[in-house]
Specification:
- There is one protein chain.
- The protein has about 375 residues and is an alpha/beta fold.
- The protein folds into two domains: about 240 residues, Queuine tRNA-ribosyltransferase-like (TIM Barrel, Alpha-Beta Barrel); about 90 residues, no CATH class.
- Helices cover about 40% and strands about 20% of the residues.
- It is built from 15 helices and 16 strands.
- Strands 4-14-13-12-11-10-6-5 form an eight-stranded parallel β-sheet. The chain has a three-stranded antiparallel β-sheet with strand order 1-2-3. It has a three-stranded antiparallel β-sheet with strand order 7-8-9.
- A hairpin with a 2-residue loop joins strand 1 and strand 2.
- The chain is globular, with a radius of gyration of 20 Å.
Length: about 375
């Protein structure tokens, strides 16, 4: 039996639900911290769980290159390898092949690419991507697709979308249907509404366990992203989870939930934390700024996260300016806690039929700055 998805409550297009896997349930809307190389950077996974994470994301491209999917399988699978017994979603590796590899050659079979680590050559195809995800033992696996940057021509978007549909069928066929696991298809089509409609229609007919919207947050303005969601989501099955890949800022998340998205992932909270930027209910705070050198206040005294409420801004400023690892760790933990707390607030508001009011108040609070 594949994973199950149940919608629990709705508030206009926004909705809450439960995804049931063999390793636990996932409350939606959900933010998935990114564990690219079998680690959520600068965090202990116990703290990720305590912050409220139901699921994290792993990356096929990075794990196949180092330490290797077969090695991870011999060591008991990705969950055991990284000591995370809860659900894991793995992306297909397609985005990283296109964005990170030094040299690549695209064909109907797949992509031959050169590793950014040592220059070695590899083939990633739909079948190989799903084989890797099976070796890792991930609970939610993604079809292999081609993700192109925006803006692009309609001809280029059409070519990549149709190739991704053919790869979707091969990915679906290669998926090993183990109890409690599932596979998601990925809608492509650039910024062309008709191509997005076509992609969504054909993927829905393939009966994936969930549908993702890919190829967004790749350089286009937020308004284009939202327009693509508005034109795509009505064509996706309502009884399947909807996943917006690689998104995004807290504002992106609220606006996407409003349109019917259930799942998100992004490196933003961890990457920002490593570079001195804190996400808070007062908006983003650049702790590197000199004005915080003598600021005794915590980032947010009302937060339940000790990294957010237990250290002064002056101390965090000192750590970051001194390039101390602890500064990166504390800000990353604070950011992950903020994102996961935001998702809990979103779920509560939808359940209470007050999501519009919640979104308005949250947005207004961001404008207050650092109090």
């Amino acid at each position: 039996m594949s994973l199950k998805f149940t919608v629990q409550s709705t508030d206009k297009n926004a909705r809450t639900g439960i995804i049931t896997t063999s390793r636990g349930v996932i409350k939606t809307p959900v933010f998935m911290p990114v564990g690219t190389a079998a680690t959520v950077k600068a965090m202990v996974l116990d703290d990720v769980r305590l912050a409220g994470a139901d699921i994290i994301l792993g990356n096929v491209y990075h794990l196949m290159l180092r330490p290797g999917a077969e090695r991870i399988a011999r060591l008991g699978g990705l969950h055991k390898f990284m000591n995370w017994p809860y659900p894991i979603l793995t992306d297909s590796g397609g985005f990283q092949v296109m964005s990170l590899s030094k040299l690549r050659k695209l064909s109907e079979e797949g992509v031959v690419f050169q590793s950014h680590i040592d220059g070695s050559k590899h083939l990633l195809s739909p079948e190989r991507s799903l084989e890797i995800q099976d070796l890792l033992g991930s609970d939610i696996q993604m079809q292999f697709d081609e993700c192109i940057k925006l803006p692009c021509s309609d001809d280029e978007a059409s070519r990549a979308m149709n190739l991704s549909l053919r790869w979707a069928a091969r990915s679906r066929e290669a998926f090993h249907n183990v109890d409690g696991r599932g596979i998601f298809g990925i809608v492509q089509g650039g910024s062309n509404k008709e191509l997005r409609h076509q992609s969504a229609k054909f993927l829905a007919e393939m009966d994936f366990d969930g549908l993702a919207v890919g190829g967004l947050a790749v350089g286009e303005p937020q308004q284009i992203m939202l327009e693509m969601l508005e034109s795509t989501l009505p064509h996706l099955p309502t009884n399947k989870p909807h996943y917006l890949m690689g998104v995004g800022t807290p504002d992106d998340i609220i606006k996407a939930v409003c349109r019917g998205i259930d799942m998100f992932d992004c490196v933003m909270p961890t990457r920002a934390g490593r570079h001195g930027l804190a996400y808070t209910r007062y908006g983003a705070i650049n702790i590197r700024n000199a004005k915080y050198a003598d600021d005794p206040r915590p980032l947010d005294p009302q937060s339940a996260c000790v990294a957010t409420n237990g250290y002064s801004r002056a101390y965090l400023h000192h750590l970051v300016r001194s390039h101390e690892i602890l500064g990166m760790m504390l800000l990353t933990q604070s950011n992950i806690a903020y994102y996961l707390n935001l998702m809990q607030g979103i779920r509560d508001a939808i359940t209470n039929k007050s999501f519009e009011e919640f979104a308005l108040k949250t947005t207004e609070d961001w404008k207050t700055g650092d109090i």
